[in-house]
Amino acid sequence: MDGRTRRREDTRQRLFEAAVELIAEQGFSATTVDDIALRAKVAKGTVYYNFASKTALFEELLRHGIGLLTDDFRAAVRDLPPREAVAALIRAQLEYIRRYRAFAQLLLSEMWRTNREWQQTLMLLREQAIGTIAETVQAGVDAGDLPDDLDVRVAASALFGVGLVVAVDWLVFQPDRPIEDVERSLLGLVRRVV
Amino acid sequence: MDGRTRRREDTRQRLFEAAVELIAEQGFSATTVDDIALRAKVAKGTVYYNFASKTALFEELLRHGIGLLTDDFRAAVRDLPPREAVAALIRAQLEYIRRYRAFAQLLLSEMWRTNREWQQTLMLLREQAIGTIAETVQAGVDAGDLPDDLDVRVAASALFGVGLVVAVDWLVFQPDRPIEDVERSLLGLVRRVV
DNA sequence: GTTTTTGAACTGACCAGTCAGTCTTAAAAG
DNA sequence: CTTTTAAGACTGACTGGTCAGTTCAAAAAC
């Protein structure tokens, strides 16, 4: 990667970060391109040099963010027996949310919204993330390691949702509480199920 | 109630309904007052005759919607022993979400957003709803009916969140599946915990 | 020499909020 | 019962401002 590419990557990264924070706080429509450029400390022209439109910037952002999450999920469960794999998923999710708090908040806000231009994108990405969880749970059921009356589909979305809500709730309403604490409580809850 | 009052109540109700649907689909900022007026079949001026501003309309909407939810929660747990009370809460929440699907979707999208004018309002209302759940769980722990290593605060927000996410996910992505099905699966999951 | 960034000016669509005027309803006056 | 009055409810064209997206010449980085 030469200097030019690196510089450009860096600009795009700064734009992603600025956009994700602002959109998490205010939502997509309330966030202006001028705001994003200002926070990323670039000129407005640079935004449009790097992205086709505000919407395109947001879509790439979604793809990028959920890609990272799915990677983390896959890495977390690799070679683990089902029960531990589920716990590992929770941990990976919390870890991810801690690192990318703004993105998590944004996901929570946009994931179940209909009628927006990027809804299609988001649906695919959601399937990717929840699908990974569902695979793990299914493997556990098949191996007889998890109860076979478990509704895999509901369990997967419940797992995904409970992590997201509890973690974001913690970030927004009691940010001083150490994450280990929240993680322990949540794992305690989930362990009773699996 | 005379004809005038009835007429006005009716207009306000129609505005609430139009607003809640549009905001659930598109978000607050992306929803225009013209849209709301159009869907409610009134003139734009009528919106401002009945509400001080777009934000005020939304705030009253939130108060109204969460008020109903809290009422349902309180009614559901009345005189029930702790374990059954928790199950009753889940049922009440699902029932509520089925009836006011758009409002639930809206809540899920806006509840954890920061930096918006109505955030204060929302925080209070959230405390009201989750607080009711926390009371019930706490009563269960005190009575020795629920395990005393349960983190009440986390458990309450987890309960609230899991219901919201699972139900909205169901409404958005598999609306044909009967609710009893979802309710059974969810109760199955939660029963393992409590 | 080429790519990337800058910054400021500009356009046109869109949108929250306003207001002078119209319609509706209840009740008072005849 | 019919007409008048007045407040209440509603209307929609209009205004002032905002914002996505464009343009471009000049500068900086490589």
Descriptive overview:
- 2 copies of one chain form a homodimer.
- By secondary structure, chain A is mainly alpha-helical.
- Helices cover 78% and strands 0% of the residues of chain A.
- The first copy, chain A, has 9 helices and no strands.
- In chain A, helix 4 (54-77) runs antiparallel to helix 5 (82-99), helix 4 (54-77) packs parallel to helix 7 and helix 5 runs antiparallel to helix 9.
- The longest helix of chain A has 24 residues, at 3-26.
- The first copy, chain A, is elongated.
- Chain A starts with a helix and ends with a helix.
- The interface between A and B is large, with 43 and 44 residues.
- How many alpha or pi helices of chain A? 9
The separation of the N and C termini of chain A measures: 46 Å
- The averaged pLDDT of chain A comes out at 91
Shape of chain A: elongated
- Helix and strand element order of chain A: HHHHHHHHH
- Estimate percent helicity of chain A: over 70%
- The percent range for strand residues of chain A is under 5%
Major sheet summary line of chain A: none
Give me the Rg of chain A, rounded.
18 Å
The greatest inter-chain interface is formed by:
A-B, 43 and 44 residues
Could you say which structural class the secondary elements and strand pairing of chain A correspond to?
mainly alpha
Sequence stretches where pLDDT stays below 50 over 5 or more residues of chain A: none
DSSP E strands of chain A, number: 0
Q: How would you describe the oligomerization state of the chains in this entry?
A: homodimer
